[in-house]
Amino acid sequence: QVQLVESGGGLVQAGGSLRLSCTVSGSTFNMFVFGWYRQAPGKQRELVATLNRDGSTNYVGTVQGRFTISRDNAANTVYLQMNSLKPEDTSVYYCNARSTWTNRDYWGRGTQVTVSS
Description:
By secondary structure, the chain is an all-beta fold. The protein has strands at 3-7, 10-13, 18-25, 32-39, 46-51, 57-59, 67-72, 77-82, 91-99, 105-107, 111-116. It contains no helices and 11 strands. It is globular.
């Protein structure tokens, strides 16, 4: 049973930083492509960043240059470092893992990030 557990959300002032963590259990860590999504109230869930197995990354334009997705294979953990946070970054952030063997998606329960102006 694959499980994803996020942590690291919270309340921060505009311009501040947070680091989100997503710890994966129940399967081989390096078989996944990872993504961080976010969903604000009344809005659709959007893809923020992806990390491929080869280490390449992609970001939505609104976070390019401010957010960094990375992984620690020894800790089975994926991170999202968020700098220069803006009020519009306020959302629930979800970790996603897509298996490259089965193409199945796995999700964490989400962690709230609130940025005050």
